[in-house]
Amino acid sequence: MRRILVTGALGQIGSELVVALRERYGSEAVIASDIRLPPLDTLHPGERFEFLDSTNARQIQDIVRNGEVGTIYHLAALLSATSEEKPHVAWELNMGGLYKVLEVARQHDCKVFFPSSIGAFGPGTPKDNTPQDTIQRPTTMYGVTKVAGELLCDYYNRRFGVDTRGMRFPGLISYAAPPGGGTTDYAVAIFYDAIRYGRYTCFLKPDTRLDMMYMPDAIAALISLMEADPAKLIHRNSFNVTAMNFTPSELANEIRKHIPSFEIRYEIDAVRQGIADSWPNSLDCSAARAEWGFAPRYSLSAMVEDMLTKLRTRIS
Q: Is position 266 annotated as part of the catalytic site?
């Protein structure tokens, strides 16, 4: 079996994906990479880590060739809010990095996973039960790079036969990685503050409705899609996926079932609120269910209970 390369391996998705891949395929089969270096005491025998700037084609080429890589999970990117602060950096990393990964994949016959987002939609997209195939006119640099990335992956699949696959993630909630500059990161930060302080100040309005997914479901979906029979994939780049749907107010109410004294207040961040308002309220993920069996397990109540349990252990 050829090895698996994960770029952006120290990020929100990568930090948990690498663990899951090593458990499934063995430590020797997975190469983690990032532009940051992990603490030395976090690396175990047999686990391989490489420094990688995803905008450097030579570095990608060397790791893929020398590591005998056959699959690339390309996760290195700036998230939504950070991309609005640094749009030029977002374009260079999100698009420039993807282009270089696809070129190396073309040359070395690698499969590529590209994570798109609900940010790929815009104000003109149907807000409720957003279809798999619909208008995509995002108004943020993050969204622009995601739409362009979907199209570029489709192009490399049709033009060069590169086995590209992707999904449009909703907000992702994880206990393993801290918030990282995304518009939906309130749904992670709220748990830290609920446990530590019993209160949280939210940057989105209380009735801002968005789709979300718990990270264990996202990781399972990633692996399932990459293992799916390519003959059954119609859409490839990218599948709508979702697991739950709530507002900040509804999430706070669910947390109060476990921490009755929890309080939430609101100081609206105009930039992030504007980004959230441009996204769909909910996604139709029937194509993912039909083409590769997408089936999330966690509901809002199950996610909240598990997040609080796991985070209390980590924080203590």
A: no
